């Protein structure tokens, strides 16, 4: 396998609600995911993140595990309701103290902390006041960002504003699969704008410290199932909603006009052209969370009843096509070359902008064997293939600077509960015992070489 530069960053990632637990300790307030997970029928296995991996108490051991694997970076998220319990107002010092301890522990082990300000756990009082559908939430996000910079910028020098705003907007406010579980149709695009505005305002705050700041998106290649005009137009629409509605305002300072026309939101967006210079403030890097591509088609005749909520307004009559690729337990097709394709596409939009793979991983039904090991052959193959593509990308001269595996620990996998395991490290949720999987041992050996 090709070599990587000595300064290439290797890490693993987690998210606060998925791993921390301790949801009612040390002044933490409720988030939309606390509310959502405790609503019957929302989570596949009826569970919640109240305890999760107990990372709040076990973080030191978990960071030692990460460092022992040879990883030199830890991407974690800061829980907004742990730092500002009601979403606005003064900081909760106990919450800030936790993240200082976490960051300092990373540094003690030679691990660089990469902090994400928002990985979906919006304080519930802000949702009660309108959530990401209202502008005030973006302004409160700016205030929260300012608090974290005052308190933590000396121990955390790499920041991401948002994680996957596509999920926050379209799964949270479009089809209701994620918290807060609302089905607002085309109004979900208001959440897109307010999330991006919040990003831009937070970026301004972080820039005052001189620290490095980016955003983590989940773009994906979108392919038409055939060369027909209908299928090509279906791919255009999905590409617009999955990729261009985020990449173009961030990197080019404009929204894609065809997406606004498809969704009937042109007039609403035109009111806020003055926000675009804030949204497109200069990034120090862009994070790419890559899992799989999409192949789509436009079927003959409508496939959704009028008014039926869909993941993305404007995509009502588009179907995903199974191309026969192998799939992970999530049902996501495995196409490592898609990582190269999406990194190339972003570089075409913003040449030389540093890129990081901020998430990449796979879920499989892992089990401990009789001798206490986890032989996750499929995950190891997945990692090997995507690391190989990363090497090709670097060799081709694209500005890929790092790779973060998703995820360090098996955890609460959002609406899937504990039924899906992505971790490099197996977690027994009854005992909290950690077991390093074979895929992680492969990665350790690769990094040592």
TrEMBL record:
InterPro entries: GH, GH_1_N_CS, Glyco_hydro_1, Glyco_hydro_1_beta-glucosidase. Keywords: Carbohydrate metabolism, Cellulose degradation, Glycosidase, Hydrolase, Polysaccharide degradation. It comes from the Bacteria. One of its GO terms (cellular component) is cytosol. One of its GO terms (biological process) is cellulose catabolic process. Its EC number is 3.2.1.21. The keyword Hydrolase applies. Gene3D superfamilies: Glycosidases. Substrate binds at residues 18, 119, 163, 291, 406, 413-414. The active site is at 164 (proton donor), 359 (nucleophile). One of its GO terms (molecular function) is beta-glucosidase activity. It catalyses: Hydrolysis of terminal, non-reducing beta-D-glucosyl residues with release of beta-D-glucose. Belongs to the glycosyl hydrolase 1 family. This is Beta-glucosidase. It comes from Kribbella amoyensis.
């Amino acid at each position: 396998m090709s070599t990587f530069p000595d300064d290439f960053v290797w890490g693993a990632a987690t998210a606060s609600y998925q791993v921390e637990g301790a949801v009612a300790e040390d002044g933490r307030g409720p988030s939309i995911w606390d509310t959502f997970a405790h609503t019957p029928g929302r989570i596949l296995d009826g569970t919640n993140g109240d305890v999760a991996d107990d990372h709040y108490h076990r973080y030191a051991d978990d960071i030692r595990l990460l460092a022992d694997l040879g990883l030199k970076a830890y991407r974690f998220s800061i829980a907004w309701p742990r730092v500002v319990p009601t979403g606005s107002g003064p900081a909760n010092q106990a919450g800030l103290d936790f993240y200082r301890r976490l960051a300092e522990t990373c540094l003690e082990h030679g691990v660089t902390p990469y902090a994400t300000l928002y990985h979906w756990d919006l304080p519930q009082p802000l949702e009660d006041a309108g959530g990401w559908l209202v502008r005030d939430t973006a302004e409160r996000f700016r205030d929260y960002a300012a608090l974290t910079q005052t308190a933590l910028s000396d121990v955390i020098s790499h920041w991401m504003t948002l994680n996957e705003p596509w999920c926050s907007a379209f799964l949270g406010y479009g089809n209701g699969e994620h918290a807060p579980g609302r089905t607002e149709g085309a109004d979900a695009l208001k959440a897109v704008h307010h999330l991006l505005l919040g990003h831009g305002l937070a970026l301004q705050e972080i820039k005052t410290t001189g620290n490095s700041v980016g955003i983590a998106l989940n773009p994906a290649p979108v392919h038409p199932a055939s060369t027909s005009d209908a299928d090509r137009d279906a791919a255009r629409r999905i590409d617009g909603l999955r990729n261009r509605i985020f990449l173009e305002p961030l990197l080019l300072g404009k929204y894609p006009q065809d997406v606004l026309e498809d969704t009937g939101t042109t007039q609403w967006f035109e009111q806020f052209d003055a926000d675009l210079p804030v949204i497109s403030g200069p990034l120090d890097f862009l994070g790419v969370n890559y899992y799989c591509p999409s192949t789509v088609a436009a079927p003959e005749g409508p496939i959704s009843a009028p008014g039926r909520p869909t993941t993305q307004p404007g995509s009502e009559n588009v179907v995903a096509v199974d191309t026969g690729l192998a799939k992970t337990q999530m049902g996501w097709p495995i196409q490592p070359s898609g990582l190269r394709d999406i990194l190339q596409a972003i570089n075409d939009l913003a040449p030389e902008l540093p890129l990081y793979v901020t998430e990449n991983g796979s879920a499989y039904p892992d089990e401990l064997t009789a001798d206490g090991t986890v032989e996750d052959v499929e995950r190891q193959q997945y990692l090997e293939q995507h690391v190989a593509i990363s090497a090709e990308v670097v060799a081709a001269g694209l500005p890929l600077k790092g790779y973060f595996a998703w995820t360090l620990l098996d955890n609460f996998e959002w609406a899937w509960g504990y039924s899906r395991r992505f971790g490099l490290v197996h977690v027994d949720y009854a005992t909290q015992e950690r077991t390093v999987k074979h895929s992680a041992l492969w990665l350790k050996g690769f990094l040592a070489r």
